[in-house]
Amino acid sequence: MADTKVYILDGGSLVIDGFHAFWNRGPGGELRFPTYSVLIEHEDGRYIFDTGYDYDHVQKVLPFEKPLQTKEQTIPGQLEKLNLKPSDVNYVINSHYHFDHCGGNKHLTTACTICHTKELEVCACPQPFEMLGYSDLTFSSDVAKERSDQLKTALDPELDIFTPTFETVSGDQEIAKGIWLFETPGHTAGHYSMMVELKNRRPMLFTADACYSQKSMDMMCIASFHLDPTAGVESLKKLKTLAEKHDAELFYSHDPDSFPNYVKAPGFYS
Ligand SMILES: [Zn+2]
Questions:
Q1: Domain containing 136: what range?
Q2: What is the distance between the alpha carbons of residues 106 and 54, in angstroms, rounded to a whole number?
Q3: 165: CATH
Q4: Is-above-0.90 flag for pTM?
Q5: pLDDT by residue (tens digit) across 83-142?
Q6: How many angstroms does the Cα of residue 223 sit away from the middle of ligand 1?
Q7: 99 CA distance to ligand 1 middle (Å)
Q8: How would residue 2 be classed by pLDDT, with cut points 50, 70 and 90?
Q9: Rounded to the nearest whole angstrom, what is the distance from the C-alpha of residue 1 to the centroid of ligand 1?
């Protein structure tokens, strides 16, 4: 039986204002930050946690986030570095369905998609202030259809192509040996963080957008993109407690200071 391996797949970068990254704290001004996905080679199959953003989508819908992404920084490009094809991935786990976490799902058409029950419900009918966050619906034609029904608009034919097999879950749970999902709502309704236990090192706790950066954790400061800020702060505290309890190392979702120190694919953690 092979040991579990974790690969960090570089997904390029985006820009937001510092006041969005550190809500009501700042400082303001352009902040360029990384996005990435996590590939887990596990005895039960290959899992990908989040799939980054789609360059064309961001250029079309959110060009002010100034995407920088090479072909190599797409999901197919990163998998190719590991001599893998999209069809080699068995499971996609989405922390949530904001565009910078699900843009690559559309390449992984044969994988089963795992997400929080609530997240799949809300992304079809988000709050008005969440519309840009939930703007990339290429991960599911069914969700895109539900959204266009809600808005009474015609479905973009480009979205009528693919709906994966979904497996929705809720609560904190170990979805495969050593792969844990922890509920961390606030940023979105059904947000999950993930911990992976490895043989030769401390567990890795991927915060996803419950905590953008080390600085967010140090300041107990959430990002301004959220559904429920009070729940968001509780989730920050929960992550801190989980890291202490499991002696886990925290890996932040959008941290320009920490990301350069992460081992990127083809390197891995085991
Ligand atoms: Zn994000």
A1: 5-179
A2: 10
A3: 3.60.15.10
A4: yes
A5: 999 999 999 999 999 999 999 999 999 999 999 999 999 998 899 999 999 999 999 999
A6: 10
A7: 8
A8: confident
A9: 34
